[in-house]
Specification:
heterodimer, A: mainly beta, 7-stranded mixed β-sheet, globular, B: mainly beta, 6-stranded mixed β-sheet, 5-stranded antiparallel β-sheet, 11 strands
């Protein structure tokens, strides 16, 4: 079974530039998550999709971050404009259903973003 | 506030030795607790998941324990190997569709 795919793996941009990350979840997984993981911290949920609808985006900085999952499969996360504090690893995860009911989350390798 | 605290923050052990990592949580109402292993530059990978009624679960050389009364969990690694070097993250889920609560992780280094 193929895992969660993410690209790019690494990205370096200057502050105030824009960047986009792509995620392809495991086939058949209805739920997709984007996490931000700052060095030395645990992942922080940014947004959760159930199929193509948003379930939770309460911690997404909506003034600069946006995400979409138009066809209920792939997803993109965009930052515009980037700030220095956005430097982190952005993890995508997917699960069959909702994680709160013991559905396992499977994580991708992440995209390491460095903002200079 | 739902929180997960892990200790120690980092740990260095010799290859072949055992070690135990700790996790305390305040998440309520409790649904399940997971331990993840995160290698450098990789995403977290699940090691174990335990519900309220389970107090021990093993996955090879990894054994997790759960005391739901004291809201504590531990991850015991037996006969450590160099490949065990990673961050180990404790994650707790509350009942219902609420975000998972992640600890900051314990950074384990196994040296020869």
């Amino acid at each position: 079974e193929a895992g969660v795919a993410q690209s790019p793996r690494y990205k370096i941009i200057e502050k105030r530039q824009s960047v986009a990350f792509w995620c392809n979840p495991i086939s058949g997984h209805a739920t997709l998550y984007w996490y931000q993981q700052i060095l030395g911290q645990g992942p922080k949920l940014l947004i959760q999709f159930q199929n193509n609808g948003v379930v939770d985006d309460s911690q997404l900085p909506k003034d600069r971050f946006s995400a979409e999952r138009l066809k209920g499969v792939d997803s993109t996360l965009k930052i515009q404009p980037a700030k220095l504090e956005d430097s982190a690893v952005y993890l995508c995860a997917s699960s069959l259903g909702l994680a709160g009911v013991s559905h396992e989350q499977y994580f991708g390798p992440g995209t390491r973003l460095t903002v200079t | 506030k739902n929180q997960v605290e892990q200790s120690p923050q980092s740990l260095i052990i010799l290859e072949g030795k055992n070690c135990t990592l700790q996790c305390n949580y305040t998440v309520s109402p409790f649904s399940n607790l997971r331990w993840y292993k995160q290698d450098t530059g990789r995403g977290p990978v699940s090691l174990t998941i335990m519900t309220f009624s389970e107090n021990t679960k093993s996955n090879g050389r990894y054994t997790a324990t759960l005391d739901a009364d004291t809201k504590q969990s531990s991850l015991h690694i037996t006969a450590s190997q160099l490949s065990d070097s990673a961050s180990y993250i404790c994650v707790v889920s509350a009942v219902g569709n609420t975000p998972l609560v992640f600890g900051k992780g314990t950074r384990l280094s196994v040296i020869a």
